[in-house]
Write a structure and sequence with these properties.
The complex is a heterodimer. Chain A has helices spanning about 25-40, 65-70, 90-100, 120-125, 140-155, 160-175, 190-195, 220-230, 260-270, 275-280, 290-300, 310-315, 330-335, 335-355; strands spanning about 5-15, 50-55, 80, 110-115, 195-200, 200-205, 210-220, 235-240, 280-285, 365-375, 380-385. By secondary structure, chain A is an alpha/beta fold. Chain A has a domain at about 5-120 and about 210-230: Thiolase/Chalcone synthase (Peroxisomal Thiolase, Chain A, domain 1, 3-Layer(aba) Sandwich). Chain A has a nine-stranded mixed sheet with strand order 3-2-4-7-1-8-11-10-9. A two-stranded antiparallel sheet of chain A has the order 5-6. Chain A is globular and about 55 Å long. Chain B has two domains: about 25-80, no CATH class; about 80-170, no CATH class. In chain B, strand 3 (about 60) and strand 4 form a beta hairpin. Chain B starts with about 25 loop residues before the first helix and ends in a 9-residue tail after the last strand. The chains are: A alpha/beta, B mainly beta. The interface of A and B includes residues 138, 139, 151, 199 and 250 of A.
């Protein structure tokens, strides 16, 4: 993709927590930027462009890059602020790839952060709704995922226990990831089936937490990447698809999965992937809900329709399984919105470098698939590799 | 409070922002809402190229890039009837777009209207009721509007969807 091949040469993130009262936003971002630079053995002066992701109004601010640009190496540098809903971190990554592939920049810092305890992100999410059509009915993210859950159960035969298995897998993985937020220590699906309902059929534990944290990557074009690190993670390709911004239109089902399928299909075809679970070693999917994860594994064509819950039952997606999904614990364990989307390719990069420590997958990694999703509905999908072939 | 070494004070700055806003509906939505308010009619506009019906009407069919006509050309009145697709009970109250967090009196639903469009709205079924237990996909629905003097020109001029229990289920 693009004229120059690019690689992730450094990565860093903060611990993700419910609250970080000890730092303000610039200081939080500084931690992640510094960690990524140290990982790449670079300094702030080496950064020549900054891509910052953060959702406007989630911290009661607009033009949110203004507060921390100076503190993350952006002073007198090129840069852009990205805000694409839940997708934002994935768009930060793909924008970073595009900057590095342009031939104009050598070291691009791509950083996403969210400090959600500082304002009311639920209220801010409601501001994303169409201002004139049915605002009082909209229940934002939770309502959308309730629809996915309802429809998935009816069309696939999936039961509540299968959604609980997704949460159990996420929690077990998160407990092995020091950087993850929610580590409950669940032992069985019965504990999950006791958690109260939000909107039927979704329970509390079927949805992600709200977290605070930041994640950053340094992206460089090929000739620089080889000088910086002996473990570059190559960005093989990426694709962006977007459909309906409006909830009720074109006679379509509300919140369609079209963009997910479109992005994945194009990406796989362009890269000769004919058997995704064989050709791809690991996936970090942006999935803020358990039922959503099962449905979207199918939407991304990683398995046939109606099959995902059966594969979950068999442990195919476990860390030690044939096709590990979200070995980091995923969005279900950690969701600082703009950081989350950056964490997906970041965690893939860790797996490809075989640097994930306790949450390293058993399967030998070669090719990784990371995604972001948000709004109604952007999809950004990336393919990363530890070899250039 | 026991003797302990002084902790650094972590200051948090608090405020509350109230922002007034007023959105223009534009010619398509203004016509849609005034027809709903004054005449109790629900309209959609059909794309002349792909034939999809846009409810509520918008200026452009996004997949076709075709500019849609203003009223009355290509506008079609909807019957307000359809079938129950899915339903949701709000067990833990969720904040709505007006900033209110209150328990919902009724369930929410997605209705597939006869004209082939989906609409998300209230369902005239109360949580934990006998009727809730009888819900199934395919039940016949009919829209009910608020009385004319309560209608103001918004989506909630539609009160809810009623279930026509005696009518046959939709097949398939």
């Amino acid at each position: 993709m693009g004229k120059r091949r690019v690689a992730i040469v450094g990565l860093g993130r903060t611990y993700h927590r419910t609250r970080r009262p000890d730092v303000n936003i610039p200081e939080l971002c500084y931690e992640a930027a510094k960690a990524a630079l140290e990982d790449a053995n670079l300094e702030f002066k080496d950064i020549d462009a900054v891509v910052v992701g953060n959702m406007e109004f989630f911290e009661n601010r607009s033009m949110t890059e203004m507060w921390q640009m100076d503190h993350i190496g952006g002073y007198l540098r090129s840069g852009v602020h990205v805000a694409t809903g839940g997708t934002v971190g994935a768009t930060v990554a793909s924008t970073g790839f595009e900057y590095a592939a342009s031939g104009l920049f050598n070291h691009v810092l791509a950083l996403g952060f969210e400090k959600q305890s500082e304002a009311d992100s639920r209220a801010a999410i409601r501001l994303t709704g169409d201002p004139i059509i049915g605002r009082s009915l909209m229940r934002a993210a939770v309502g959308v995922f309730a629809q996915f859950a309802f429809n998935y159960m009816l069309q696939s035969g999936c039961r509540e226990e299968h959604a609980a298995m997704v949460r159990l897998r996420a929690d077990k993985n998160a407990c092995r990831n020091p950087w993850a937020h929610l580590k409950i220590g669940l032992q069985s699906i019965d504990q999950i089936l006791e958690s109260p309902y939000l909107l039927t059929p979704l329970r509390y534990l079927d949805m992600c937490p709200t977290s605070e944290g930041a994640a950053a990557m340094i992206i460089a074009p090929e000739e620089r990447a080889r000088k910086i690190t002996n473990k570059p993670v190559w960005v093989k390709d990426w694709e962006v698809a977007h459909n309906s911004g409006s909830q009720e239109t074109y006679g379509a089902p509300l919140v369609p999965t079209t963009s997910l399928t479109e992005a994945a299909t194009i990406l796989f075809k362009r890269n000769g992937i004919t058997n995704p679970r064989r050709d791809i070693s690991v996936a970090e999917l942006y999935t803020p809900s358990t039922y959503g994860e099962l449905l979207w594994i199918e939407s991304y064509r990683l398995c046939e329709d109606g099959e995902a819950w059966k594969l979950e039952e068999k442990g195919v997606f476990d860390m030690e399984g044939e096709f590990p999904v979200n070995p980091s614990g995923g969005v279900l364990a950690t969701n600082a919105i703009a950081s989350t989307g950056v964490l997906r390719p970041l965690e893939c990069a860790l797996q490809l470098r075989e640097d994930a420590g306790e949450h390293q997958i058993t399967r030998k990694p070669h090719l990784a698939f990371s995604t972001g999703w948000g709004g109604f509905s952007w999809t950004v999908a990336h393919l990363l590799s530890n070899t250039l072939d | 409070m026991t003797q302990e070494k002084k902790k650094e004070e972590l200051i948090r700055v608090e405020n509350r922002l109230t922002i007034d806003y007023r959105f223009a509906a534009g010619p398509y939505l203004a016509k849609f809402y005034t027809e709903l308010r004054d005449k109790g009619k629900l309209w959609g506009v059909r794309c002349p190229k792909c034939q999809s019906l846009h409810v509520p009407p918008t200026i452009m069919c996004a997949p076709c890039h075709v500019k849609l006509s203003e009223f009355p050309q290509d506008w079609e009145e909807l019957s307000g009837k359809g079938y129950l697709d899915s339903w949701y009970k709000i067990v833990t109250p969720q904040m709505d777009l007006l900033g209110r967090t209150e328990p919902d009196e009724y369930l929410h639903c997605v209705a597939w209207l006869d004209e082939g469009v989906a609409m998300y709205h209230y369902l005239n079924v109360r949580p934990e009721s006998e009727e809730e237990r009888k819900l199934q996909r395919g039940l016949r629905l009919e829209m009910e509007l608020k009385p004319i003097k309560e209608r103001v020109g918004e989506k909630e001029d539609i009160k809810y969807f009623n279930i026509l229990w005696d009518e046959p289920l939709k097949k398939g």
